[in-house]
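Protein Record: Sequence and Backbone Structure Tokens
======================================================
Tokens: labelled as protein backbone structure tokens, with as many entries as the chain has residues.
Task: work out the structure tokens from the sequence, keeping to the layout shown below.
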Amino acid sequence: MESMKSSVKNRREIYDPKSVSWMNLLRNYNKTKKVYDVDPYAEVYQFRDNVYAILTDNLDGGYGSWIFLVNGPEKSMLIDTGWGLGNLKGLAEQLSGGQPLIVVNTHNHMDHAYGNCQFDKVYCHKYSVPYLKMQNPEMWDYVLDGQGSGKWVEFDEKDLIPFKPYEIAGCEDHHIFNLGGDYDVELIWLAGHTAGGCGFLDKKNRILFCGDAFISMRIGISAPLMMNSKGGPHWLKTGAMIEKPHAEFATIRAFRDQAAELVKRLDEFDTIFPGHFILDLNSRVVRHTVDALNEIVADPDDFDYEEKRFEGTVTRFKMVRELGVIAYLESTVGNP
């Protein structure tokens, strides 16, 4: 790895202008931005005295993913691991000052969890476990061009850390991680985007690291089926589509139920750090999201616009005040 040479060759989606503008301002003018020699594929920002945000490219042409490092008095927590491009482990060890590292996933998607194999043990919500177990040495084939680089993002294929098995520790909702003394971080289940999606509540900083549950661009509710890597970015080696494990929790209703519980705890955190785009979102967007979800549950046809997307599938979009949109299929609303 010589320099930060990763660059997107072809954007595959159109993003919310305010989110892109925020990211451009951050990357061009934030004075805490730093690129470390140990991992030149990552940009590091410091948003609190003990909180680092690590920005990496999405290797399938997306705008970028956030990874977070929280330093406690005795231990550090790495929240998500990105695509596995570059030496994230070395970077995390440098930012943590060599403290013991607790590695966690907000959910199982490739842009948040493919870097897991750089570590010996990763914690997640228990419903993410069967998905993480599907990871294998071929899981990056989807983004490689067969000539030593990527299809959508230019990088040196040799800088992808090879797959190796690691321990996956599934946790119950409200599991507490202690970073030393009275510094606790709580896992909070946030179904919807994925069945095992979750956030991590840093009670000292009053921050909820929420993965893709609340983001300023588009909150996507997963489809009930998935296919192999020939038809989409998944780890399955068979050609058939299969039902996702715990698919009943990857729905609008499941998301509404969990988000409604989170509303009851808005006095415990002030801000949200999502897995993409704008950070430091005001926690009130959780309430606004629940309002929009309730409207969808009451009438799935109450959407603001729709688009034909992958393979002719019609995706519906519902706007969320002060945030972005919820994207869902009629089939992902869920049963009463």
Notes: The helical segments are 17-29, 88-95, 110-113, 129-132, 252-263, 285-298. Residues 225 and 243 are 5 Å apart (CA to CA).
